[in-house]
Amino acid sequence: MIFAPRTNRSQLWLALLIASTTMLLLLAAMLWLQTRPVRMHDLHLAEGEKLRCVSYAPYHRPGQTPLLEDTRIEREQIAADLAALAKITDCVRLYSIDQGLEHVPELARPLGLKVLLGAWIGYEKTKNARELERAIALANANADVVRALIVGNEVLLRRERTEDEMRELIRHAKAHAKVPVTYADVWEFWTRHDSLANEVDFVTVHILPFWEDDPVDIELALQHVAETRRHVGEHFAGKKILIGETGWPSAGRQREESKPSRVNQARYIREFVHRAHAEGWDYNLIEAIDQPWKRRLEGTVGGFWGMLDADSLEPKFPLAGAVAEREGVAGPVGGAAVGGVLAFLLATTGRRTRCLRASAIAAAGTLGGMITVLHWEHAHLAYRDALEWSLLGGVAALGALLPLTLARWHGEPVPATGRAARILRHGEPLRAKAGALGLLRGLLLFAAAVAALLLWVDPRYRDFPTLLYLVPAVVLGVVGWWRADTTRSEITLALVILIGVVARWSSEPANPQAVAWLLTGLALALPVLLVRSHQHEQRE
Q1: Could you report the per-residue pLDDT of 336-377, keeping only the tens digit for each?
Q2: Which helix (H) or strand (E) holds 479?
Q3: Using CA atoms, how far apart are residues 382 and 388, in angstroms rounded to an integer?
Q4: Minimum mean pLDDT among 78-87, 100-109, 195-204, 485-494: which range?
Q5: What is the pLDDT of residues 9-27, one digit of tens each?
Q6: Contact of 494 with 531, CB cutoff 8 Å
Q7: CA distances (Å), 184 to each of 25, 118, 173, 259, 395, in order?
Q8: What is the pLDDT of residues 216-247, one digit of tens each?
Q9: Pairing of β 181-186 and β 203-206
């Protein structure tokens, strides 16, 4: 690596101090805002009144997933889940009757819960027929508990069966079931296949502002639902309408102006339920309990639509009173203190050092410590398996090492002789012994390039990895301007990062998470590209 002589190194440390301190202040402001209680509409249900219905899936404990055919949920767990849900709702919606869910109707009866029983319809015709027959038999045997039989969920959306095939399945269920029969899909697919309304007892539509093709801001979400509900009601005039799914996620990737958060989830649920009860809408909220397994299909956001926490089965937010995004900041503040002290000790141990250099490295270490804790919090929400913990955790570790590695580098040039001495007299850069720092830079540029490429071509279910690369962006974004010997591979990686972050941001320019990712990518890429370009111009 090539760095500036001593006079310019002072500028380097000053720039690093300013950049690290600025980022620390921004993060501190963000954390402070997250701890501020947000006032919103208080939901006061009448005495004895509960939520109309909530979607229930029992796969909320570690390792539980319906994606494995041999999964079996014990009857005792389902009984405990339903007992917790009976405190907040009068009804649960099921999507299948496999893997232990066949016990739900009999367990719901003594709790006073009704059941919207679902038969899962997919690609396999034989399995569909078997599932539907079992669902019909279960509904008929528990007709006092089962409100309706839902034949398939978003089958047309997934393109797993045609409209005519669904018509046949619904007709078969109608001919043999003793309870009302319906089909559930996104509202747009219902209006596209509206002839199916003639086959069902009522129309079950999903209205999810977050998942719309044009995501809806929380400020406009309830208005969107009301307008869509009105449109569907007019389109299927004379037919009863059930909003079969609606809700808001509490964590995950922001989609344009549609932001998942605990505060937004609380606000949406409160405002929707109030409006639904006032308007007399029949509805089902998605969903009862957080489902970590859904992260495999829908990214982080898929696992956090629940009203109850997956571990404790306690409500994630109250129905009245102010709500804050986080309870406290002890973790990030403690991480910042540890990182700052460790970096300062490394920067001042073993030899004399300048105050400016020690201050800059301590600030970078403080930033690294805070971000390490914030990343740890995010990892528990987002990482799905050992591979992601290993790879992404490794990137996080490399980023955390940067300030500590910088603490052991003093930026001293190689002794100048011959041509190097002449270069020194003219104030041009000199080669420095910074092999570890250069290695970290190469690895982090490679990782960031892969992340930028993946987020560019496949963005829907991927989180913005800003926290992973924020410390490298600050440290390398400063140090890189004092470096002149970039390699071709680094230039290629920087170009991929630049193109990837700009392309991702251009698709959703109003998304703050996309803006943060853009700025992080620019900080990593521009020093590599522009310093190299400047060096080339000087040679010419």
Answers
A1: 999 999 999 998 886 667 899 999 999 999 999 999 999 999
A2: helix 466-479
A3: 9
A4: 485-494
A5: 788 899 999 999 999 999 9
A6: no
A7: 48, 9, 14, 26, 42
A8: 999 999 999 999 999 999 999 999 999 999 99
A9: parallel
* Residue at token pair 């109003």: 510
| Residues 535, 527: Cα–Cα separation, whole Å | 12
**Long-range CB contacts (within 8 A, 24+) of 408-413:** 408/346, 408/436, 409/433, 409/434, 409/436, 409/437, 410/351, 410/353, 410/357, 411/3, 411/9, 411/12, 413/3, 413/5
C-alpha radius of gyration, the chain, whole number: 28
Full-model pTM? 0.91
**Which 8-state DSSP code applies to residue 147?**
E
Owner of token pair 């800059």: 360
Q: How far is CA 58 from the centre of its chain?
A: 21
Burial code (b: 16+ CB inside 10 Å, e: under 16) for 418-443 equals eeeeebbeeeebbebebeebbebbee
pLDDT digits (tens, 9 = 90+) for 472-511: 999 999 988 876 677 889 999 999 999 999 999 999 999 9
Q: pLDDT-derived band of residue 410, with 50, 70 and 90 as boundaries?
A: low
List the one residue out of 235, 295, 223, 220 whose CA is nearest residue 60: 295
Contact (CB, 8 A) for 501 and 520:
yes
Residue at token pair 């609380």: 266
- The one-character DSSP state at 239 is S
**∠ CA(300), CA(389), CA(508), 5° rounding?**
35
